[in-house]
Write a structure and sequence with these properties.
- With 483 residues, the chain is of the alpha/beta class.
- The chain is built from 15 helices and 19 strands.
- It has helices spanning 7-14, 28-41, 54-61, 65-77, 126-137, 153-165, 181-192, 207-215, 232-242, 263-276, 332-342, 351-362, 364-389, 413-422, 451-470, and strands spanning 3-4, 49-51, 81-84, 88-91, 97-99, 105-107, 114-115, 175-178, 198-203, 219-224, 246-249, 279-283, 309-314, 326-329, 394-395, 403-407, 425-426, 428-429, 442-446.
- The strands form 5 sheets. Strands 8-14-13-12-11-9-10 form a 7-stranded mixed β-sheet, sandwiched between helices.
- Strand 9, helix 8 (207-215) and strand 10 form a beta-alpha-beta unit.
């Protein structure tokens, strides 16, 4: 058990739970149980948490205890709740579920699912060639123990060279290879953020970054992104007023909005961070994926003169998520401190995976160029399907990255995600990208699936969105006035 959620807290998470999607009106207890399952599926209700007593939740929702009792019974029957008399009920998941690549719990038998919850591409054809070449290189390392806490020298040099090509001179001593970008973020937080430390993040932002910050019990403040990106005065003002220990930013094709931070703001952010003593953690996961000939501003680290910028990146987005290779670029002393922290976590990244990465980076120009063409085609197919089937949705066309951030025609993101799951489309609803359960008018739509699959997915989403409007919704009762 990881904790307990009170009745008023669960009621807030449930929101307008009566308005569940479907072609027929569901009983209230089924609607309540379905919404709890949806909260578990999108990660907003953790596993192993004790739910409020039936009477407490009934009072918080202003419904009968019988309805809550029936909902809890259905959750137990579906394997989403375990109860013990006199001790309470805890959230769980059925035995036929697993953790998907999104971090969400999903059914095992979902091979036909069109997964728009994952913002990552399938592997490029060059991966097999790189893997074979890596196996040929492996004997050079077999005579040693195989532990390289900062990474093998060939990969560190290749990553450093890539930074140099972007205008940021970097030595191999400034690079630490990690097991993916998320691992890089975790190590940086372990080194630079004490439990309970303050952190500034964008809103919306990457959900797994929020999870990592929650693991450090960070005190999070947010800078809300506007329709066209960062508001400079507000962002700089937030840094000066809150003076956080860290700020986590995604300046290249921000996840999920796709915004690109201009050069002038990058320079001002670094200067403001230095003035208030804030370290900047810059997530460069999408830096290799500009589209339509978009020119990238200089890396944020170009403006750093005081070792305030720690950059993280990896192979997942331009290459393949199954190749768990990421990195940290920082000052050489910081890299050594990170290596010391790492020893207590996982020692080192697999040598064979690093060798594969070396060969992929050697062919980076060709591979990434093909990825950009592929992504542009798929993005345009998704935009065309949305314009045709869901014309009331508003989308800003991103100049790079792999995601669209769609503003819906109503606050139905979570309900739509639950409905879409029933027709074989997995979605990441807007509230997953924030702290407080808001952003129900937004939905992240990656364009990483083949164009035909994206068009099919939009068709299914449009159908269930239409059903949401057709489904009768229970009106909230006005409280009785007794005079």
């Amino acid at each position: 058990m990881t904790g307990q959620v009170r009745g008023v807290q669960l009621a807030r998470l449930l929101g307008h739970w009566h308005a569940l999607p479907g072609r027929r009106r569901s009983p209230d207890y089924a609607a309540l149980a379905g919404t709890v399952r949806g909260l578990l599926a999108d990660g907003r209700l953790p596993l192993g948490v004790r739910l409020p007593a039936e009477r407490e939740l009934a009072e918080a929702l202003r419904i009968s205890r019988t309805t809550v009792t029936a909902a809890y019974r259905q959750l137990r029957e579906t394997g989403h709740l375990a109860s013990r008399r006199g001790a309470g009920s805890w959230t769980m998941l059925p035995g036929n579920h697993r953790v998907a690549s999104t971090g969400l719990w999903t059914p095992l038998d979902d091979r036909e699912m069109l997964d728009l919850g994952v913002a990552a591409l399938a592997a490029p054809p060059q991966l097999l060639t790189a893997a074979r070449a890596a196996v040929e290189d492996l004997p050079r390392y077999l005579g040693g123990a195989g532990y390289h806490p900062t990474g093998i020298i060939e990969l560190r040099e290749a990553v450093a060279d890539a930074y140099g090509a972007r205008g940021l001179p970097t030595s191999a001593d400034q690079i630490m290879v990690t097991s993916g970008t998320q691992h890089a973020l975790d190590l940086v937080l372990r080194l630079a953020l004490a439990p309970g430390g303050s952190v500034l993040v964008e809103s919306p932002t990457y959900p797994n970054a929020l999870a990592a910050l929650a693991g450090r019990r960070a005190r999070i403040t947010t800078h809300g992104l506007a329709a066209d990106g960062w508001e400079p005065d507000l962002l700089l003002g937030s840094l000066r007023q809150t003076r956080p220990k860290l700020a986590y930013l995604i300046p290249e094709f921000q996840n999920p909005t796709g915004h690109l931070m201009p050069a002038a703001l990058r320079e001002r952010v670094v200067a403001a961070a230095h003035a208030v003593g804030t370290d900047l953690v810059i997530d460069e996961s999408f830096v290799d994926l500009p589209l339509d000939g978009t020119e990238l501003p200089p890396p944020v680290g170009v403006y750093d003169r005081h070792s305030r910028v720690i950059s993280i990146g990896g192979m997942s987005k331009p290459y393949w998520g199954g190749l768990r290779i990421g990195w940290v670029r920082a000052s050489a002393p910081q890299v050594q401190r990170l290596a010391a922290v790492r020893v207590g976590v996982d020692m080192a990244s697999p040598v064979l995976d690093q060798l594969v990465a070396v060969h992929l980076l050697a062919d980076a120009d060709a591979i990434v160029a093909e990825r950009r063409v592929q992504l542009a085609v798929q993005r345009d197919a998704l935009l065309g399907a949305l314009a045709q089937r869901l014309p009331d949705w508003r989308v800003t066309v991103p100049r790079g990255g792999v995601t669209l951030w769609a503003e819906l025609d109503g606050p139905v993101s979570s309900a739509l995600a639950r409905a879409a799951e029933e027709v074989g489309v997995r979605l990441a609803p807007g509230p997953r990208f924030g702290l407080d359960g808001t952003m129900e008018r937004f939905l992240r739509l990656p364009f990483t699936l083949p164009a035909a699959d994206l068009v099919e997915a939009v068709g299914r989403i449009a159908a269930v969105r239409y059903d949401l409007d057709r489904t009768g919704r229970q009106r909230w009762r006005e409280p009785a006035v007794i005079a």
